[in-house]
Design goal:
Elements (H helix, E strand, L loop, with lengths): L1 E4 L6 H9 L4 E5 L2 E6 L16 H4 L13 H9 L3
Parallel strand pairs: 1-2
Antiparallel strand pairs: 2-3
Length: 82
């Protein structure tokens, strides 16, 4: 298992390539392990082919949604009297 400090994660893409190749990377903060980057097992990933090529939809602009309740009201409901 490879270990790296948070400061070294600026080169995240290199660590992700190592994980993609099968390595596990343990992330340290002040020499203490706090997280792990691990490869995703193949059975967990389902690749769904695109229905249309990106070139067909990249310039598509959809009208804004008009939900029945505002985001402010949803926050008030969730937070209650806080």
């Amino acid at each position: 298992m490879k270990r790296t400090n948070v400061a070294e994660l600026k080169a995240l893409s290199a660590h992700l390539r190592a994980v993609e190749a099968g390595a596990t990377v343990e992330i340290l903060v002040n020499k203490r392990p706090v997280a792990r980057l691990v490869p995703i097992e193949e059975e967990e990933v389902e690749i769904v082919p695109a229905e249309r090529p990106f070139s067909e939809v990249c310039s598509l602009r959809l009208p804004p949604l008009k939900p029945p309740v505002s985001s402010l009201e949803l926050l008030r409901r969730e937070r209650g009297d806080r």
